[in-house]
Amino acid sequence: MQPMHDIGLEIRHTADRGRGLFATRPIAAGSLLMEMKGWLAKGSELQVSWLCLQVDHDLWLCSNGDLLDDCGNHSCEPNAGFVDGRPVLFALRDVEPGEEITWDYSTSLSETGWALDCRCGSPKCRGVVRGWFELQNEERDRLMPIALRYLRPGQPSSRVAFSLRER
What we know:
By secondary structure, the protein is mainly beta. It has one domain (3-155): Beta Complex (Beta-clip-like). 4% of the residues lie in helices and 31% in strands. It is built from 1 helix and 14 strands, in the order E-E-E-E-E-E-E-E-E-E-E-E-E-H-E. The chain has one helix spanning 137-143, and strands spanning 3-4, 9-13, 19-23, 32-35, 37-41, 51-56, 59-63, 73-74, 80-81, 88-91, 100-103, 115-117, 128-130, 163-164. The strands form 4 sheets. The chain has a 5-stranded mixed sheet with strand order 1-2-3-11-8, with no helix packed on it. Strands 6-7-5-14 form a 4-stranded mixed sheet, with no helix packed on it. A 3-stranded antiparallel sheet has the order 4-10-9, with no helix packed on it. The longest helix has 7 residues, at 137-143. The relative contact order is 0.20. The model is unreliable at 1-5 and 160-167 (pLDDT under 50).
């Protein structure tokens, strides 16, 4: 377990989803939780061993799995999201100590054909996590305020400032 005292998060193992991020203190709605970090790569450059977050149509933020943001798990009813459209997670509501920080993977992914069986257990669980454009219109409308900028109609690309790390 790696405590992140300055931001009130620590990495713990979950019962069924591997590593997860957990609050160590109360976190108020609207608080900045973390900026996604790593290096940028095009889809054709991706390696199977990397953990990757899609940040534009053919642009991925990648890591070797050793970053804090690599431990965030999916939920169909998340308590964190990309409120301002950048790859930065904010608390969507008040978070209690011991609560797992989750975000909806579909709010960053535009790849069609990608799917992941969901185990979030939320009453709003979709059963399968899919790319943005494979979601029902109502679901996209619900998630639009917490999706990455490149998925929001009429918004500029997500290629704005990232905290990048050399490979």
